[in-house]
Amino acid sequence: MKRAFDIAAAVGGLLVAALPIAILVLLIRRESEGPGIFSQQRVGRDGRLFYCHKLRTMRTGTPNVPTHDVQAAQITPIGAFLRRTKLDELPQLWNVLTGEMSFVGPRPCLPSQTTLIEERKKRGVQSLRPGITGLAQINDIDMSDPLRLAEKDAEYLRARSFGLDLSILFRTVFQRAGSGDRVKI
Question: What's residue 61's pLDDT?
Fold first, then answer.
């Protein structure tokens, strides 16, 4: 059921988002040099590498580091808006459609984030398809704390269900930033 939902929602999402993505790509390219869509190698299901697609939010030439290690000066003005609104994630609908990602799952990390990769392996989390959003994200846990992130990802692995996925999607879309509400399962 999860994969069928992912395919149907990704197709619908791409149909709706195609024009906004095209407009945003033009705005990104107008503001700074480089492509409008950024593709970065990430670690996927069972440790397989894939290219995760996003709208480019950083200046060309920014080092390939985790988001929490990027300097604010490297983020373009439109990039700051795209990150704040999460619109930079729209091209990942293609990753969902092709089966490299799901709507809900652990966020895919960079191959250089070895501590997180090892912690996820210990907990069996790498058996999951990575997601655009996940239990950790709605609980404000990011990749700067790999142990805590891997523990929350493992919690999702143990409790996962279609109902939980719908709840996470709902919270991702409608949760107020900084509300302090946490999801316990």
Answer: 77
